[in-house]
Design goal:
CATH topology of the largest domain: TIM Barrel
Distance between the termini: 47 Å
Radius of gyration: 24 Å
CATH class of the largest domain: Alpha Beta
Structural class: alpha/beta
Strand order of the largest sheet: 1-3-4-9-10-11-12-16
Number of strands: 25
Number of domains: 2
Length: 576
Amino acid sequence: MAETSFATRLTDLLSFVYPDIDGPMLASQVIDAFWPEDKHRRKKPRKPGNNLWTQNDAVLITYGDSLIDGSHKPLDLMNDFLLNRMKGVVNGVHILPFFPYTSDDGFAVTDYRKVNPQLGEWADITRIGAEFHLMSDLVLNHVSSQGVWFNAYRQGQKPYDGFFFEASPEDDLSMVVRPRTTPLLQEVETAMGTRHVWCTFSHDQIDLDFRNPEVLLEIVRIIRLHIDMGVRIIRLDAVAFLWKEIGTNCIHLPQTHAVIRMLRLLMDYATESVILLTETNVPKAENLSYFGHRNEAHVVYNFPLPPLILHAMMSGTARYLVDWQRTMPPAPLGCAYLNFTASHDGIGMRPAEGLLPPPEIGRIIDTIREIGGLVSMRTLPGGGEAPYELNCGYFAAMGRTFKGEDGHHLARFLCCQTIVMSLEGIPAFYIHSMLATPNDLEAVERRGMNRAINRHRWDYPALLERLDDPETIHAQVLKAVSERLQLRSGQEAFHPNATQFTLNLDRRLFGLWRQSLDRAQSIFALHNVSDETVEIAEGDLNLIADETWVDLLSGEEITGSVTMAPYQCRWITNEV
């Protein structure tokens, strides 16, 4: 019965996406692509539940060449750093695109089946995957204009002659949602004549045409290869733009959601425990839609967090962060949020739309520019531009508030990272946040790209020297964040799906009540986002009187009112 249900569900999804194609035949081809040579698959789907992650889970985000020394393979150095500095701190690692590429720091892929030889080889990837939950990018919206697929397309070779999305300059493209300001269409000469290909991101990144089922089948084969190489978290990069229809906004279309449901169905029947993560840097309702009805992504990014936490720390009020968090539903059964403040990209501002008033966004932008950060723009439908993201390292961004500079840089940064650890969901940390890497303005100048500001490549011996010196800010930040993550991993109330309630406290405080799934442990996670001392009156937290309450971070027993020093965090629990 389960086998029939699987085949029926797969056929139904494919028939919706490809109504003119024989559904059962295409379903059979997808099965052969994902389970070649009739490899074993589950007879029953994985049971829905929150057992794919625990409070032990935390992810490091890094490029494969964030650490270099000029003599060793970067992936060797990364493996050394992970084993010697991150073991027991995080158990997952997101290695950003490690494939051959031509631009966008890996996101213009030329060959999904190879590891960039400048980084290492598949053996280096699988070695890391043997020790950590490995996340990789499935850049499924587009490929490099200089890759094998697009070269074959231009030469008219089958099946690649139908792999790329074409449009006409005469088409009505006014509604198309863009993340960039570059022209959408690019004129190219092919064996079939002049064509205009679709370029959502850049003219070196040509969009695939998923209306052709051969594209889908090839992507499924690539997913199987990556799983076989040890990948256990698949990040669906830019997935919101996957399906296009002329005359629409070409984002979040029903066919896109159906393709994700199809991939989720395959994961539910895979013998390996594989998690799908959607990368959709868009406002709240659109982002949450990628959970589907518990049948699309296992995990979605909590994209409003970076700008809302940034505003809270700069303004000294958690007002907008609290108001937003109160409206956030718990993740559905079998799903989770991925919480973060920084990544390889900038601090996305689209998720702040409707959450932060325009004047407050303007204050953030002004402050970021005072720090030396940059602002990237996007084209609006119908013309005009708006801020798309802020380009600034998150540690650097914590160096200044709306009032100016002060002596709280480290405490403010540790507070913002502790918020990420306290929230419902899985916490993720960019390597340059963990290392307190400064803004790399020289790289921006040299590479002509705003995002280079946050993509520094450390000389590994020099970095180790700094990390071994406890007086350096790099050693202090890594030590402090690591200690809190290690402490967090022992608290069942911080399970990604543990109960969460947003507390009604002074606006300078961001407070959460977390309770473990078995209801045995409660934690009151308190964060002072201001440079002022704040008192919480006895009774405001409703601590049960006949239990002993201890602040895990300070070791202090809590018996009455609670004092919160500037940027102080407390994890007050009844179970130590």
